[in-house]
Amino acid sequence: MYPLHKQMAGQRFWSTDIFSNENMVAMQIRTFTLGHSPDPDDAFMFYGLAKELIPTAGFRFEHILQDIQTLNERATRGELDISAVSIHAYAYVSDQYALLPSGASMGDGYGPMLVAKEKFSRTEVARKTIAVPGTMTSAFLALQLWLGKPAAQFNYVVVPFDQIFQAVRGGQADVGLIIHEGQLTYQNEGLVVCEDFGQWWGRENAGLPLPLGGNVIHKRHEPRMRKQVSDILTASIQFSLDHRAAAVQHALHYARDMGRDLADKFVGMYVNHWTLDYGDRGREAIRRFLGQAFAAGLLPHRQKLEFVD
């Protein structure tokens, strides 16, 4: 967790100045829980916010760092005020959360990959055991769309995203569905690509990016406050893009043995103009992704996107 606010636990206020202006202001400060992954792209995105380098309108943000599958699951229970979620998971939490216009992770000609010790065709992959990083990830939904099969019709094992390579090398799975920086390091593991879902999606959908993740805010907060928070998070992303060198240096703490150049490349893949605002094409990509999943029977209901605008 980032040290954004000073803890006051254990202090007692028995003095007569408990209702002084200073204490009244402290009592009125609103703290939001903000969940995101301990990854270089998210760390880069929230650099300005984490280091208190941008105005926050008197709000405080408690950063909660957890893997995306855990955040997806927490979102189904409505636990966090603001959270990164997979676009796949948004389909299951849209009754509780609204999408923020910034914070997107879009695969623009690249994305989650299927890797193996040897190259397999789609037909062959469908008969193999696939290590996946979570069933609510967008990568897993893309896998089902690509195979043309629901999860019940192929073999998979759920493995923490940072153990996918090990699962394939060790024989626990024949194929690995990789996300995050594994897209840049799979060759170091002696593996080859069977399919890049970002490339596949673009070929099938007029060059649209593959929508992977986004930020959401709970609807228990009234619309005006949602907009205020949205503007603050967008400002943090813009600050990082404007101060790239410092933000990348901050992100290196979460780079899992990546060097600076590789971390900078990875950040550039997933924090860019799409992250500042989905735009019309980004929003259309989400509609198509979830719409096709619904038409294929992979989602329980058709989604009507709700953005904070």
Could you characterize the architecture of this molecule?
- The chain folds into 2 domains: 178 residues, 3-Layer(aba) Sandwich (D-Maltodextrin-Binding Protein, domain 2); 92 residues, 3-Layer(aba) Sandwich (D-Maltodextrin-Binding Protein, domain 2), CATH 3.40.190.10.
- Helix content is 41%, strand content 18%.
- It has 15 helices and 11 strands.
- The longest helix is centred in the C-terminal third of the chain and has 20 residues.
- The two termini are 29 Å apart.
- The N terminus is likely disordered.
The gross shape turns out to be globular
Count of individual domains: 2
* Backbone structural class: alpha/beta
Give the oligomer, counting copies of the same chain as homo and different chains as hetero. single chain
The largest pleated sheet is described as:
6 strands, mixed
The run of helices and strands is HEHHEHEHEEEHEHEHEHEHEHHHHH
Q: Ranges with pLDDT <50 over ≥5 residues?
A: 1-27
> Which CATH C-level class of the largest domain is it?
Alpha Beta
CA-atom Rg in angstroms: 20 Å
In CATH terms, what is the architecture of the largest domain? Answer: 3-Layer(aba) Sandwich
Fraction in helix: 40-55%
Q: How many beta-strand runs?
A: 11
User: What's the mean pLDDT score?
Assistant: 90
CATH fold description of the largest domain:
D-Maltodextrin-Binding Protein, domain 2
End-to-end span in angstroms?
29 Å
Strand content: 15-25%
Number of helices: 15
CATH superfamily of the largest domain: Periplasmic binding protein-like II
Keywords for this entry:
309 residues, alpha/beta, D-Maltodextrin-Binding Protein, domain 2, six-stranded mixed β-sheet, five-stranded mixed β-sheet, 15 helices, 11 strands, 41% helix, globular, disordered N terminus
